[in-house]
Amino acid sequence: MERFAVLDSWRGIAACLVALFHLDAYSHLYGVPFLRNSWLFVDFFFVLSGFVIAANYQQRLRDGFGVGRFLFLRLGRLYPLHFAMLALFVGCELLKALGKTLVLGSAATNPVALFSTPQQAPDTILANLLLLQSLHLYDFLTWNVPSWSISTEFYTYVVFAVCLVGLRRHVWIALLLAMIGGPVLIAMLSERYMNIHFDWGIIRCIYGFSAGALSWNIYEKWNRKLGKWLSGSMVEWGALGLVVAFVTVAGTTQLSIAAPYVFAFVVLVFAFEAGTASALLRLRPLVFLGTISYSIYMTHVFIEQRLFNSGGTLAKLWHVDLFTHREIDGHDFYFLGTQLWHGDVAYVVYLVMIIAMSYFTFHWIERPAREWVRNRVRTRQQQTATSRSIVSA
């Protein structure tokens, strides 16, 4: 597998920014436009995924690696942690219902309703198990909110593999169509522009993934010529500044539709790993964040909800309100903390908790599952090769 260590570090930073976006804390950081728009880094994931998958599987799929084998490997990368987090979310709901039943006991006039909200209805569990939850089945996000992108990404892999096997050397046609058609469809279908997920998230994913795959093809074909222009410290820091400026300004405006183009350029620049910014991104702590980035992305909402649950419990025990209430668009929102420094501390504690949990989920779930799947594929390949040798003999 071809690895780009600097791009891995980028993935880790992006995962942390998405996590910070999801925490509603009364903090100095909350109103910063860059942080409030950091949901756009999900599109960075899609672009980076397209680049890395194309780098590692494009030629192999052309050479007969097999669509089924490719999808099995990708499923082994995505599904185990997705399943574990889904089980954790469902388990927490069961425990909460059990706890309420034990507390209320026979005094309860009505049984505690399990899975009573649309977002937690039994059919949403099945949809999550089949990775269908974000293919326009629902008008809302379900269970582990970030898993909407896992749903769309797996089926994007299917589209990519089929197009690659069918079109082979002409796959660039499909990539260009996605790069042109994606933004047009999003502009037509979404009033929120790139902020789509449960409805048209598959279009968003295919668009971003194609931008990354096309970026890889450009890098592979013209890396020597492009290296003269796109490598070096000045270009890297300029690309970094572009990301900050774009995310800060774009938000949910029409400009956000250009996110895959911007991120594809940035990925292309940092693929050369030739400047001082790349040198910083190769530092061990940042590489570590990249290693556990998928776990960061998949665990952070669980941690965020537990923080709010803990705050609610402590507020009842201490008879104080640990939340700041604000009315936004006619709805009452809760923010963790009652003073700005409370929220600042909450952000740090939140990140530490996420990284700690991600360390364990990576070592106990992600890596063992990935190795098991790879070993199964390797064993199957060896068996096939042995069978062919016997037949030819």
Short description:
This protein is mostly helical and 393 residues long.
What order do the strands of the largest sheet run in, or round the barrel if closed? 1-2
Largest sheet: 2 strands, antiparallel
Structurally, the number of domains stands at: 1
Structural class given helices, strands, pairing?
mainly alpha
The coarse silhouette is globular
Helix fraction?
over 70%
Residue share in β-strands: under 5%
* Distance linking N and C termini: 32 Å
Number of strands: 2
Radius of gyration (CA) equals: 23 Å
Mean pLDDT: 88
Helix run count: 14
Order of secondary-structure elements: HHHHHHHHHHHHHEEH
Low-pLDDT runs of 5+ residues are: none
Describe the protein in words.
The chain is mainly alpha-helical. The chain has one domain (5-392). It contains 14 helices and two strands; from the N terminus they run αααααααααααααββα. The chain has helices at 5-22, 33-36, 41-62, 67-104, 122-129, 147-167, 171-189, 201-230, 233-250, 259-271, 276-281, 284-291, 293-318, 340-392, and strands at residues 323-328, 331-336. Strands 1-2 form a two-stranded antiparallel ribbon. Strand 1 (323-328) and strand 2 (331-336) form a beta hairpin. The longest helix is centred in the C-terminal third of the chain and has 53 residues, at 340-392. The two termini are 32 Å apart.
